[in-house]
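Standup notes, structure subgroup. Blocker cleared on the magnesium ion input:
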Amino acid sequence: TLDVDVATARAWLQAAATSMDDHADHLSALDAAIGDGDHGTNMRRGFSAVADKLAAAEPATAGELLTLTGRTLISTVGGASGPLYGSIFRAAGKRLAEPTADLAEALRDGLEAVQKLGGAQPGDKTIVDAYTPAVDALAAAVADGADPAGAARAAATAADEGAQATIPLLARKGRASYLGERSIGHQDPGATSTALIFAALADTLEA
Ligand code: ADP
Ligand code: MG
Ligand code: MG
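Run returned:
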């Protein structure tokens, strides 16, 4: 199982906030090619608000912390990505409230939630294209007996490969889908930010 305590969850979200700040220009440049150029500023605003909330609040459990993260993203990010990432973290937080649930299962619930909300399937050139291989790799690594850091690194690598694999895809959801064939040849910004979130988890568990 992949058990994370509240301090580890806090360190993960703080690392994610730093990463969104560091990569905001890159994420917005990706979004400028196939969207409206704001994905980096959206993610930076949302995760900076999460970091502020976490500095002020003392969630007692990792589940409460992820739920607070989800609520904060929904209320602070104007773009499509706010409700989408919000649904992921809220679903993961809800699952972690169950005594036997681990982070691998919780993140799997996040995938179900984002697909229910946004209707995207793998191959539609969205968050789902990085997130699906990441949770699959995480579950496989945990089943193989990998330690938490190793399992998270496998997930991060799979997420990054999934994000890169969006380049040849035609966008079928979100703003990029308005471009039709012209969306081909560009890496999806949301899949890229998802890979950064899994990389932040691996970095945190390795530290
Ligand atoms: P907006 O498109 O409102 O400006 P962002 O730029 O912050 O929002 O986010 C764009 C990203 O959101 C896309 O790159 C894509 O990965 C993701 N996205 C859009 N629609 C969906 C959806 N229905 N399901 C999953 N991800 C989606
Ligand atoms: Mg955008
Ligand atoms: Mg926008």
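Discussed briefly. The mean pLDDT is 97.
Next: hand off to the docking folks.
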